[in-house]
Amino acid sequence: xxxxxxxxxxxxxxxxxxxxxxxxxxxxxxxxxxxxxxxxxxxxxxxxxxxxxxxxxxxxxxxxxxxxxxxxxxxxxxxxxxxxxxxxxxxxxxxxxxxxxxxxxxxxxxxxxxxxxxxxxxxxxxxxxxxxxxxxxxxxxxxxxxxxxxxxxxxxxxxxxxxxxxxxxxxxxxxxxxxxxxxxxxxxxxxxxxxxxxxxxxxxxxxxxxxxxxxxxxxxxxxxxxxxxxxxxxxxxxxxxxxxxxxxxxxxxxxxxxxxxxxxxxxxxxxxxxxxxxxxxxxxxxxxxxxxxxxxxxxxxxxxxxxxxxxxxxxxxxxxxxxxxxxxxxxxxxxxxxxxxxxxxxxxxxxxx
Length: 353
Known about the structure:
353 residues, inorganic pyrophosphatase (n-terminal core), Diaminopimelate Epimerase, Chain A, domain 1, 2 domains, six-stranded parallel sheet, six-stranded mixed sheet, 12 strands
């Protein structure tokens, strides 16, 4: 196991956990498996220690994650803003998970900034960031635990718990959530998971009694008939292989979502499929935002050393990891497609290499 926090920070964190009565866990907008795994895992841990703990997420999350332990107690900020604001303002301890800046929470940015300012002053409250994304915003939290080389925020949590002497006390619920986050953020350990310590973490989680096979089925084998039809439609009708560039593109409009009966989460993972094509280095899925009219979302996946996070930051107002990233822009889907083509052209040397 690895050391992710200094001895001085560890002493402070342990003290803050012991003293806290009301704890809140938050994550980024459109939570994925790692965001939910880390917040729900910490929530189960805090409850085991006798704390009052709630998870607040900015908006909806994929249907295929609704089986996770504790998910029924999640508060969605877009549904219960006033209740969430009260919880955050009264929290003794706030865990910020899988998020390196308050802007990543969109509508929650204002309340998180308020909590950040209060935690830095005399008003009380304490904020801890656990994350694995590049370039954390300086001063966002009292303690910032940022480990970009780790496969998932849930792996970061695993190491934090190890340093605090909590791994041997981990419950099945905690371990299930942590494993789910690590599994989903690595594509079932097919990328960003070559470090041997990743499997040390997995071994520890297995010893807690998790059913990793069931977790895999819950996440990857829960397709609806409409999702299967969507996959066929995207691959046969919408997928474009950009000639000579080892790059592909799929798009989806809200009109097509309605036509196909697409539900939240049905598109998850489809962006990875074109990477099965021999020689493919970059795959993009561009879709109209279902919650914000006039916005388009970008999801990028790559293999080997192609930096799709760099491309996302440069062209799509986004970021992420080298092989998995995303972005979001206010534009039409036609404009988004042209921008992607421009980005592919700019990176043609890397894509053709």
